[in-house]
Write the structure tokens for this entry.
Amino acid sequence: MIRTSPAIVAIAMGLAASTAALAAPRAADLTLVGQYGEATAPLTLFERDGALFIDGAGRSAARLVPEGVRLYRVEGGGALKVVTRGVRLDGALLRRRDFGAEVQAGIRKAVRADSATLRARALAAAPPVETAEHRPADLVDLATLDPTIRFDIRYATRDNFMGLKLYERPAAYLQRPAAQALGRVQKALEVQGYGLLIHDAYRPWFVTWLFWEATPPERHMFVADPAKGSRHNRGCAVDLTLYDLKTGQPVEMPGRYDEMSGRSYADFVGGTSAQRAHRQVLRDAMVAEGFEVYPEEWWHFDYRDWRGYGIGTETFTRLAAAGR
């Protein structure tokens, strides 16, 4: 039986209260939340405590004060006007952008050009040789942990940043200590009315090779170097989010899962107060049970013992055949 520690229950209850107390922003303001300008120096427009702020273009969390129809005064100096294609900040047009979608479109276009060859090369590649001793793998099917945990395994479908089906079946595994810790996280989150929605966990090494080859070098911070192997390969990393137990719907976060943009960073300032509160609920619950935050991805957590396990190459078909 999985027991929840009093400390994590207290954290959960406190965060639930703080989330409920968030100021309600104006609907018109929420439509402006997003990013604008260039990828190398974006302007982030976000909501905090019912008001709008901008970050970038020489400003750091500068408040926007409504001055008229689609016009805001920037505290500290300047003006922002909402226009059809984006915003004008001090007269300069900054177009609204979805940087993550733009990167994904580029990756999918390149992959479609020769996906069969890319996959064949991945399956033929050899993982790095490890000489250190490791604990024996003891992968646990996360579907056996708790019926409240739900799954949306994107890599078993085409709904992922590569646009390819990479796993033979939708499954998620973690090494036993990590799996047990995740079960305790689920129990703690139930106090707040949330459940865990799992996107990925153990990942065969050849998939890590695929990710690295398909991702532009300037975005390599979002994927693991196959020459070193990833925490996912070792069965100690999990990608996940929250869903509302009452509605069954995933909660909103500041960015999308697997998005290769600044919105994915664990400390991204943008989004809304509610989105950032959800991110913090997930983060605190995971950290309380021994998971480490991955700074570049709000959804990615590594279990503290990941260094003790070797790189895994078993496919999901082989794991199923072995009774996993």
